[in-house]
């Protein structure tokens, strides 16, 4: 029923209903902003990308042929905008690792995570903070293609089909990029002498 209501909202927005469009912005702004923030590591760039995304949504939503494809459609828009901004030479800023982890209330999905063992130990806490900075840099060093699928799948919780639709590629391509993203991450972490005992991949 909820899915039907959401599709009704999208249908209303397509007719130019400003209230419906406003509701879509209210519902989707946090996720679109978070995606752009992880992409750039910069709050100003993320805010700019999110604003441009919803301006584009306002002008183009009438072109959306299937309401149930809205999720992949909106991620197509924000990804294209992020790519355009990247081509302008905008620089990424390093994030604290906590800013990259999925929020507890978001859809559960796997994520790189620092081991919580020994959190009460001051030395261990310091080392975890240092590991977090290294993990952040490793994520930012992935190629554009690898970073996009990693953020969409592991942090935004999109399905392979939704990612494929958003990026206009096949599901096999998405899976391949994700595989190489994790492979690249492992190599980057190995160069920093980070072992499996320090980092775990959780479900």
From TrEMBL:
Q: Name one GO biological process term.
A: DNA-templated transcription initiation
SUPFAM superfamilies hit by this protein: Sigma2 domain of RNA polymerase sigma factors, Sigma3 and sigma4 domains of RNA polymerase sigma factors
List the InterPro entries: RNA_pol_sigma-70-like, RNA_pol_sigma-70_dom, RNA_pol_sigma70_r2, RNA_pol_sigma70_r4_t2, RNA_pol_sigma_r2, RNA_pol_sigma_r3/r4-like, WH-like_DNA-bd_sf
By its UniProt entry, which Pfam families does this protein fall under? Sigma70_r2, Sigma70_r4_2
Protein's UniProt keywords contain Transcription regulation: yes
Q: Which key words tag this protein in UniProt? A: DNA-binding, Sigma factor, Transcription, Transcription regulation
- The family this protein is said to belong to: Belongs to the sigma-70 factor family. ECF subfamily.
Name of this chain's protein: RNA polymerase sigma-70 factor, ECF subfamily
